Structures are given as structure tokens and as C-alpha cells.
Amino acid sequence: MGVALKKRMPQSNRIAAEQDSLVELDELARSAGAVVAGTHLQVRQALDPATLVGRGKLEEIKIEARLHRATLVIVDHNLTPVQLRNMEEIVESRVVDRTQLILDIFARHARTREGQLQVELAQLNYMLPRLTGGSSELSRLGGGIGTRGPGEQKLETDRRRIRMRVAKIKAAIETVRRQRGTRRQARRAIPLDTVALVGYTNAGKSTLFNALTNAAVLTSSKMFATLDPTIRAVRLPSQRKVLLSDTVGFIRDLPPGLIAAFRATLEEVQEAALILHVTDVSNPRHQELDEDVLKVLHELEVHERPRLRVYNKIDAISEEQKETYLSALRNNNGSGEHRAFVSARTGEGLPELLKQIDVVLPRDRMIGVNLHLPLSDGRLLAMVHERGRVLKSQATPDHIEVEAELPQELVDELKEYVT
User: Fold this and answer.
1) Neighbours of 85 (CB within 10 A)
2) Within-domain flag for 314
3) SS (H, E, C) the chain
4) 95-114: pLDDT as tens digits
5) Statement to judge: residues 316 and 202 lie in one domain
6) Using one digit for the tens of pLDDT, what is the confidence trace for 350-388?
7) Is residue 100 part of a domain?
8) Residue 277 has what pLDDT?
9) In total, how many domains does the chain have?
10) Which of 2, 64, 96, 197 has CB 3.0 to 4.6 Å from 34, enough for a Cys bridge?
11) Cβ neighbours around 255 below 10 Å, total
12) Could you tell me if 244 and 332 lie in one domain?
């Protein structure tokens, strides 16, 4: 069971937002498998450096936790090691802060080797400064090479082991990153632009990904259901093909260490030619959540990348609200921002979204050419179909005559076959 505790600085104009944040903590707790028994929202003039919320409030939580037979207290704040230890001593229950809760959800949803390594790295980096010694007595000498040394305490041994494990995981992740780089380089052999889906967690990115690619990526109302990146090809109305990448959802106050741990995964965003920023338009706080997404894009240094705003879940809003949004899309308010309003669940607006991607995605100038390609080299014909638009083709015993529209770059590569 879980009891959620929420604490913020006292600003009356932010009470509603803080209550919404507490609702988000509730969703996170349920996604981690907790049953939420009760919540507390406290307003203070300043944080208590020793206990965060004060001993009196912790005594109240202790009593309520016992009444509900709760075994866990979840705090919507990142705790210092001292605060964590003091809170557990007073409430006499296990205490988990926001970062640890997110890490637990990540650990549940990591499926690939890369995802599991990144989660473990983030967990160990979180755990290291929070280790406490169970005893001040000196440990016995070890019996082999590399075991604890003379007079070394168990706490020091644990820290040394964690640091060694962190070093191994970093090396393993670097290997994975090189492998991912090799695969990315292979994709560049037949260059296809990558379009990355980003957005706040639970904005409907995976549902949209499935709708556009006919894939079967896990979709769930639980937060962070998608952790490992998935890439599929999509054909645009202009007949050019692009790669669509589904990525982990963002969330407010995501710890920098967590972003660093998942940098290998987020490289797909950094490599993207176009970013689809997906918003749950049915969420009344979606503008605030979008700001949190933009903060992460700044940290990834991709905030100036071409971006298309995709307002999802229009099937979950009223017809009046929908008309307001669609009117804004038509007028575009003179902002120059590219936008699309869709329902990934029903399919509404998806054809228009593909057209928008075609318009916004940077592209080489297309040139009409006639090619004389040898039948013995099927790779050349495949390249023409992948990167261009074939208008007409006719086979002869040794060659195939192709009339096509191709990017200037590909025309230069195939210049010896141009007639």
C-alpha cells in the first residue's frame, strides 16, 4: 500500500497546480503497482532540512499509515539521504521519493538489454550517496584477491562494489551505443530521415505510433509504458519513406542523472530530422506539461530542430473545444507553428498529419530523371524506390528503364545511369 505525501512552497496561486501534481504522483504510484490508501498536501514556509515536512506532520502520517496498514510512504519530492533516513525512523515505514518511484517504474518496463542496463545505472547512481552503515564494527579480512582490505567497513565495501558495477555498466552501455551507431550508419547507407515522437508520459505516443505504422507497440494508460525505443518505416503521401521512432515519455522534474543514464535511448531524438511533439489535448494542464517537454528538448540540445506539434486525443474533448482547436489550426494565429489535431485511437486527422510531416520535413529538391539500370544490381532499383518516386518502369533483357523523381543527392550518386 502507499501513502502519497506532497510538499511545496506556499503560493496560493499554485495550490491547484500542486493538487494536480499530487494526482500525477497517484498515477505514478499505481503504475508502480501500489494501492494508494491516502494523500497529504502540506504547505510550508520553508523545507525542514532534517525531515522535509517537520516531525509533527510525520507523526500524523505515521498514525494514518498504521490505520490503513500501509507499508510505504511515497514523497513527491527528491529527498536528501539525511531526510530519507530521518523520515523512515519517524514514520517507522519504508519511504520512497519521486526519483526512486520513477526508477522502479522504469525497471518494470525495461525489456531490452540496453534499457535494463540504463535503469540499473540510474538506480546505482541514486543508491550510492544514500548507503548507510548498519554497524560501526570493522569487518573481518577477506579471503581472496580483491576482497575487502584491512579495517575496511562493510559500508565502504558496498560503495566500492557499486562503483565497480557502475564502471562495468557504463562500459556495457558504451558497447550498446556503438552497436546502435553501427545500425544507424547502416540505415544511412540508404538514407531515410528519422521522425521522432516525443511528449509527456501518457500523451498517447505509442498509440499514435501504432496507428501510423500498423505496429504492435505496447500501449497502456500506465505511465512510462514505453521505455525502449522502437523504429518503423512510414510512407508519406509524396511516396517518400521515413523512419518513425517511438521514445520514452518525458515528465516534470526528471532528475539530470536519469536523463544522462538514458542518453543512448534519447540519441534517436538527437538524430531525428523532425520532432513530433505529441500533446494530450484533453488534459487541462497540457500547456504546462508541454513546457516540461520543451525543457528536456533544451537539455538534449534539439530545441531548434524542425518540430511539428501534434495535439492528440481530440476524441476526448467536446465538439465546441474541438472546433476551437480546428479553427486555430486553420488560422494558425500567424505564429508559423506547424500543428495537427488527431485522435490516434479513432484515426481522425491522421491523413492530414502525414501531409503535414511531408510539408515540414526538410527534403532535397526532387528532380525528374530517366535511368538505365542493370537488372543484375537490384540494390540500385531498391534505392530508387526507397528514396524517390517511380513514375514509370519498363524491363528489357538486361536493363530496366525507369522514369522517376529523385532527390538531388541520389541523382548525383546515380549519375552514370542517367540517360
Assistant:
1) 16
2) yes
3) CEEEEEEECCCHHHHHHHHHHHHHHHHHHHHCCCCEEEEEEEECCCCECCCECCHHHHHHHHHHHHHCCCCEEEECCCCCHHHHHHHHHHHCCEEEEHHHHHHHHHHHHCCCHHHHHHHHHHHHHHHHHHCCCCCCCCCCCCCCCCCCCCCCCHHHHHHHHHHHHHHHHHHHHHHHHHHHHHHHHHHHHCCCCEEEEEEECCCCHHHHHHHHHCCCCCCCCCCCCCCCCEEEEEECCCCCEEEEEECCCECCCCCHHHHHHCHHHHHHHHCCCEEEEEEECCCCCHHHHHHHHHHHHHHCCCCCCCEEEEEECHHHCCHHHHHHHHHHHHHHHHCCCCEEECCCCCCCCHHHHHHHHHHHCCCCCEEEEEEEEECCCHHHHHHHHHHCEEEEEEECCCEEEEEEEEEHHHHHHCHHHEC
4) 999 888 888 887 887 777 77
5) yes
6) 999 999 998 888 766 677 899 989 888 888 888 888 777
7) yes
8) 95
9) 4
10) 2
11) 16
12) yes
**CA 285/CA 288 separation, integer angstroms:** 6
Domain that holds residue 409: 366-417
pTM given for the model? 0.71
Residues 157 and 290 in one domain: no
pLDDT for 4: 47
- Stretches where the chain sits below pLDDT 70 are 1-17, 132-153, 184-191, 215-229, 254-265, 326, 328-336, 363-365
C-alpha cell, 217: 507497440
